[in-house]
Amino acid sequence: MTTKIPMAAKNESLIEVDDRLIDLRNRPLAALLAWLIPGAGHFYQRRHAKGTMYLVCILSLWIIGFSIGGFHVVYASRFAGDHRWHYYLQAGAGLVALPAIIQTRHINKFTSPKTGVTSEDYDPLWWGFMSPPHRPVAEEKTDEVSAWYARHGAGYEMGTWYTMIAGLLNILVIYDAYAGPLGIPISGRKRPDDAPESQEKSKS
Amino acid sequence: MLSISPTYLLYYVPLLVAISLVYGATRHEDMRLVLRHAVYTAYWITAFMGVIFLIIWVMGVLV
To answer: Is A154 in the B-facing interface, judged by CB distances under 8 Å?
Structure first.
């Protein structure tokens, strides 16, 4: 009979799931790696099959969304009239979303805080990869965002949703890297097949 | 019946596959159980969206 070890407590890195022992190793590091690159935390923990699955699923969603949105769906902006809240979720995907922050800092240097207008000599980095739209952005006016919508149609909306969902899914992956699968009990909740002997062994 | 082209439903497929697989993988470690859970999740998501679709369609017919 295998000994059931409860879910990782504060200092435990060894857990048992589906009758196999998993060494979570350095859990905070695994979680950080999982955020930076989907699945990297699992490769670090030598859980290669799951790492590969996460990497392929999440990055596929990201790439599909990014491309059907015309490469404009991921950008960071907190400017008036263009608070890109979607980016908070897209950032969950890690390194693939970080260029947007660099682009935002760059455009802010060329945007007047008083008028909210981007100057004519603004030239985005990396051929405009993940760069915010030229300011101002206003719903009732023709601006660069409306041009993106006109050019890509439903693809712009769907691309945004794809990348947001990719970021959200990676949050689950980060948890899996930090604490193992969700299937095992979170608290001291007893399962019907937990024998008293195994609980005593896990306490000691 | 649909006001948009059925081709738009193709957007649903990659989402369904990715969400089901990732969710299943966060519940299990054994790949067979992961795939089984993923199929189960995909079934439930599709059934739920089908029900919502029917409700909205009926509402559209009645209004």
So the answer is: yes
